[in-house]
Amino acid sequence: MTYVEHDPRFRALIQPSARLECLGSGLRWAEGPVWFPMLRTLLLSDIPNDRIMAWTEQGGLVPFHAPAGYTNGHTRDREGRLVSCEHGGRRVVRWEHDGRITVLAERFAGRRLNSPNDVVVAADGAIWFTDPTYGILSDYEGFEADPEQDARGLYRIASEGGEPERMASDFVQPNGLAFSPNGRRLYVAESGSSHDPSVPSILRAFDLDGSGRLRGGGEWARVEPGPPDGLRVDAKGHVWCSAADGVHVFHPDGDLLGRILVPERVANLCFGGSRGHRLFIAATTSLYAVFVNARSAI
Ligand code: MG
């Protein structure tokens, strides 16, 4: 069984005859998938192995880059450049078209970031990222260190660059994040239940006002079994979120529509494929994919 329906509206989003496929395995902790349409290539992190993997239909899953600074979440910016969160360097970087790496953020208020986890580009070109402590808790996914920040924050880097601005500081561990198609709502996963079961496994929803400030931020949906990690929003505003048992799909009104069950704990996902309607799923030791009736908002 691949699909669990919680709401009849789920049926329009899946391809019932399409099965979950395992595209490759042998990873230690798969994270940060990102699709490059022009290259027909998926990149993803294998964090404890300190490498970035690449998958193509022709070549399968192969090592792409190592050492990789213990990268975690990735995204593409508006110019098609790769933006990476690094646990090792405790920074957010951008890969330029000529191969050089530009550091976008590594400090806030003069102190080192914890370990940037996931990243997304807003409609105005600003780069938003989360900064929990997972990458400095041990030497497994980075380098063990004491946090220098007084919070595990949500940050924004303006499109013109400069110092990051802390936009929220009341998370236990902020994690995956994604914008609604109109860019006016930001969903952020609270994954603090990974180390403290008393923390609710939730997605929080913030609304952006006209000046780019955040409002709200309350619980938008529960993700059980959690914790939620990476998430994506499709072109119609549905939220596709990682969970311990697979991928949970939510209507923009917050209702759980259904689940795609995956045999391993899911950390992150993205839309891709030549027509954008293939869901790639980074799940512990493996990369999975399934064709769906949805595509990325961008
Ligand atoms: Mg994450």
What tags apply to this protein structure?
298 residues, binds magnesium ion
Q: What is the helix/strand order? A: EEEEEEEEEEEEEEEEEEEEEEEEEEE
Q: Could you say which structural class the secondary elements and strand pairing correspond to?
A: mainly beta
Under the CATH scheme, which architecture would be assigned? Answer: 6 Propeller
- How many strands, what sense, and barrel or not for the largest sheet? 5 strands, antiparallel
CATH superfamily: TolB, C-terminal domain
Total domain units: 1
Helix content: under 10%
Low-confidence stretches: none
- Average pLDDT metric: 97
CATH fold title: Neuraminidase
Sheet-strand content, in percent, reads: over 45%
Shape: globular
Write down the CATH class.
Mainly Beta
Tell me the total number of β-strands. 27
What's the N-to-C terminus distance? 30 Å
The count of helical stretches stands at 0
